From TrEMBL:
Protein name: Cell division ATP-binding protein FtsE
Similarity remark: Belongs to the ABC transporter superfamily.
Gene: ftsE
InterPro entries (UniProt xref): AAA+_ATPase, ABC_transporter-like_ATP-bd, ABC_transpr_LolD-like, Cell_div_FtsE, P-loop_NTPase
Keywords carried by this UniProt record: ATP-binding, Cell cycle, Cell division, Cell membrane, Membrane, Nucleotide-binding
Lineage: Bacteria, Pseudomonadati, Pseudomonadota, Gammaproteobacteria, Pseudomonadales
Length: 223
């Protein structure tokens, strides 16, 4: 599903985001990317989203070469990916239902199809009864669940998350990680960038450790 072959990213100002990073992830895997601030986690995610291009090396996502794809192909690439942010970026003047529906409205799906998919996404994050509420009516953990529902509503093959539990207390953070595991069990590949080592260690998934743009560890967390 994901293949980094000696991928390097050097920013125009000379900063190096990644140094010749190589790893592969299979379809259906659950993996964490961890490392201190500046280690290259966000760079890795931005490369997968084609927000940045590799400076050298080869990066393949579902068989597509992200160093070579044209700008016109990028929207099609992003339809295969869902993204969860730390501050979920919900629209507070829209209901929960309409927040989740937004990506499907942009894709031009019919109203009945949108309703069906939003209901299914709400069910997957255990918020079926909250669709008509507004984000301000929800707790922080519930708001993050809405962010996850919005990220999976177009049924992406790959779900990326950048510090998705950064604002949550340990109990809620563990709960949100459980939601990611449920989604993964249904076949979605999940890649989460996080520096919460205590939480990651309890989850026993694959963990890639970056340090100053280099891969210094690849194995099961907590080992
Ligand atoms: N847009 C950019 N322009 C220039 N340098 C950048 C840019 N983005 C990241 N960098 C540099 O690349 C390196 C890796 O940064 P990156 O944001 O990928 O790390 P990170 O692990 O996500 O850090 P954090 O946990 O703080 O978000 C850092 O040295 C950073 O200064």
């Amino acid at each position: 599903m994901i293949r980094f072959e000696q991928v390097a990213k050097r920013y125009p100002n000379g900063h190096v985001g990644l140094h010749e990073l190589s790893f592969r992830a299979r379809r259906g895997e659950f993996l964490f990317v961890t490392g201190h601030s500046g280690a290259g986690k966000s760079t890795l995610l931005r490369l997968l989203l084609a927000m940045e291009r590799p400076t050298s090396g080869k990066l393949l996502l579902a068989g597509q070469d992200l160093g070579q794809i044209s700008n016109a192909q990028i929207p099609f690439l992003r339809r295969q990916i869902g993204v969860v942010f730390q501050n979920h970026q919900l629209l507070f003047d829209r209901t929960v239902f309409n927040n989740i529906a937004l990506p499907l409205q942009i894709l031009g799906l019919s109203k009945p199809e949108i309703a069906k998919r939003v209901d299914s996404a709400l069910e997957r994050v255990a918020l079926s009864d909250k669709g008509e509420l507004y984000p301000a009516d929800l707790s922080t953990g519930q708001q993050q669940r809405v962010g996850i529902a919005r990220a999976i509503v177009h049924q992406p093959a790959l779900l990326l998350a950048d510090e998705p539990t950064g604002n949550l207390d340990p109990r809620l953070a563990a709960e949100i990680m459980g939601v990611f595991e449920d989604i993964n069990r249904l076949g979605t590949t999940v890649l989460i960038a996080s520096h919460d080592l205590a939480l990651i260690a309890r989850m026993r998934h694959r963990m890639l450790t970056l340090q100053r743009g280099r891969l210094i560890g690849d194995g099961e967390a907590g080992q």
